[in-house]
Amino acid sequence: MSDQVKIAIFGAGAIGSAVYDLLRDRTTYSVTVADMRDYKDLHPKAIAEEHYQQIDTRHPGTNNNMLKMFIADKTLVINALPYTENVVIYSACLEHNIPYFDFSEDAELNDFIHNIDLNKPLPFTMPHCGLAPGMSTVIANHLMHDMEKVDYIKIRVGSLSQDSTNKLKYHLMWSPDGLINEYSGDCEIVRNGSYYKVPTLTGYEELMIDGNTYEAFNTSGGLGSFAKTISNSHPYERFENVDLNYKTIRYKGHHNLIDFLMNDLRIPKNELIDIIKRGVSTTRRDLVIIYVVVGGWDENGNHKERCYKKFFYPIRENGRYYTAIELTTASGLLTMVELFLKGKLKPKGYYKQEDVSLNDAIETTFGSMFIMK
What we know:
Layout (H helix, E strand, L loop, with lengths): L5 E5 L3 H13 L3 E6 L16 E3 L5 H12 L4 E4 L6 H11 L3 E3 L5 H8 L9 E2 L8 H9 L5 E13 L14 H7 L3 E6 L2 E6 L5 E5 L2 E7 L7 H6 L11 E8 L3 H11 L4 H11 L6 E12 L5 E10 L2 E3 L2 E3 L1 H18 L16 H4 L12
Parallel strand pairs: 1-2, 1-4, 2-3, 4-5, 5-6, 7-12
Antiparallel strand pairs: 7-13, 8-9, 10-11, 11-12, 13-14, 15-16
Helix pairs in contact: 1-10, 2-3, 6-9
């Protein structure tokens, strides 16, 4: 079947090209990439020219026929474009009944799906893939699978430079726009069984992992649909008093400065992005930490706590260097693609990360990296 699978990737940036290379290296699927840029403006050798098509999704009316023709014969679509393009890409998939995956953290696509009126099932639809939301949600759901009553779910994920030489204790591994967006707006949490939104950069805590002290605090988008799923769960008694939150891990000292810039000085978002671009250097020597802790009671009334902890580092494979954040994010989504193609996920409709079995996920080619040894 593999030679019949045709995958379309929208977006030729760091994550989109990582998805492309992983698929080309580890599968025999046909893979093509679309992006708004002219081919000569891409990173050299990022995508083979014969696998590339220029489509500007920012002007869907003008390029609508080109977009539809590009996806019409595809087995599935992976959207690695900025969240602003999600509805455009998904609408084309909806019209042609093409399965859809994306990395989004925002709720705009969920709102769009909720408000459309269809007399047929949705195509397979899976947003919020990747790392957080994504595999961190799958891991958290697994840790509590046999608990009669869940007390707390703490999801902590960090994308860090291996070394830090500035007072911010941070170097850029990905878009500064995405970084500041993560620090803006509200965060979804569950407190004492009820759904709430709280400001970003709140909920500061220190945590120790393998003898090293880090800090963590609330940031937006890390839970996907998980908070609403938990707060609306049945039977209600299992999560009646649960606390659920997602926090980003950083080296100590980062929060104090970023909070000063954003909340004390109130530097406008666009200005702060420009400051970060000018003043914070980039690195490809990064690491990713996933740290998930779940506590609750078993059927005998005993309180137990389970923990998942793993550090991920860059790798070189077939001459291609993957940063830790590229590898974990791309592999998180490709785990879901692999499960879908193997028939482990239902073929139609909206699918949540928390509906995926971790045992199934780690048996895949791409998901095996998340096994905790």
